[in-house]
Amino acid sequence: MLKVQFSKSLGGFSLEAAFSGADKGVTVLFGPSGAGKSSILACVAGASRPDSGRIELDGEALFDSASRIDLPMERRRIGWVFQDARLFPHLSVAGNLRFGLKRAPAGDTPIRFDEVVSVLGIERLLHRRPRDLSGGERQRVGLGRALLSQPRLLLMDEPLASLDAARRAEILPFFEQLKTRFGVPVLYVTHSLAEAVRLGDRMAVIHEGRVTAQGSLGEVVAQAGSRAQLGAALDGRVTRHDDQMSLVQVGAWDFRVPRIERSAGASLRLFVLARDVMLALDPPSRISARNVLPGQIVSIDEQEGQVLVRLTHDGQTLVCALTPDAVADLQLQPGMPAWAVVKSVAIDGLGGRLLSALEA
């Protein structure tokens, strides 16, 4: 596990970083440009030295001002993927990948060349030079080179920021495979809530050099976005397909969503925007919405002129955005039973429509 707690002065900007990473999977550093996210990555990698504090990975101090420990970058065994991939232009794709292998500790290569090439889908690119690759292809090669260095931690600094929407959609599925295929924990920097929701397991929100919230993705994401982006991230499982619809089980809730091309049993993350959830105090009937989900109101909070009502059932939580007038008319109170009503077309399993909505 990564544990970070340090201070650093950057001219007129003060950085105070304190958060923990996920044991496995992706920890997202989320926040606007200029918040200090990339500066945190540089300190974790060893490219920049904090003024004070401690950075620890799997129980080993990478930096500790009290003990005067500051491991050089090459001893930290951390891979780093940048916005522009930074491939060596004079080497082929295969040569760039093998450079990663040269940086691996002797005799410690559980991540194999052939497996990386296969998972990233770059077999046909091995003899090309970086100048002949698309932006998405360069990023996949840069990721492969970082993985082949056998890192204990992978840093990804806005890796999709320079790509257009089509290339981002092309490369995201490869990023999703990192957790299941290689098991290397990832610290992922982004200002895109769509990327955070799709890839993250844990999130730390960075604002003006400070960590303002941290925790599991589900705990944090409902408070991390703009008013138009608030919602709930739900991890579920595809149970079956029925004509043009798919059934996704999330705890005791069954969501009907537009057909998703994933096999029954596959894991799937849904993101339901708070603005797309209606609330009923009686189970509605003869209604066009396909998802009527029972639950209990656990909290009612006013935020930016709207009221966020959280509804839970079997350990799952949905967020509903209502007007203060609606809350008053319904006399809503924590502890009341209620039904969330969600149109199927508002959910698409983190596909194109949702990504567009989150990036709007």
Features:
alpha+beta, Rossmann fold, 360 residues, six-stranded mixed beta sheet, OB fold (Dihydrolipoamide Acetyltransferase, E2P)
How would you characterize the overall build of this protein?
This protein is an alpha+beta fold. It has two domains: 2-225, P-loop containing nucleotide triphosphate hydrolases (Rossmann fold), CATH 3.40.50.300; 271-359, Beta Barrel (OB fold (Dihydrolipoamide Acetyltransferase, E2P)). Helix content is 25%, strand content 36%. The chain is built from ten helices and 20 strands. The chain has helices at 37-45, 73-76, 93-102, 113-119, 135-148, 165-181, 193-199, 217-224, 324-330, 352-359; strands at residues 2-10, 13-20, 26-30, 52-57, 60-64, 69-70, 78-81, 153-157, 186-190, 202-207, 210-216, 231-242, 245-250, 253-258, 267-273, 277-280, 291-303, 306-313, 316-322, 337-342. A six-stranded mixed beta sheet has the order 7-8-9-3-10-11, with helices on both faces. Strands 2-1-4-5-6 form a five-stranded antiparallel beta sheet, covered by helices on one side. It has a five-stranded antiparallel beta sheet with strand order 16-20-17-18-19. Helix 3 (93-102) runs parallel beside helix 5. The two termini are 34 Å apart. Mean pLDDT is 88; it is low at 351-360.
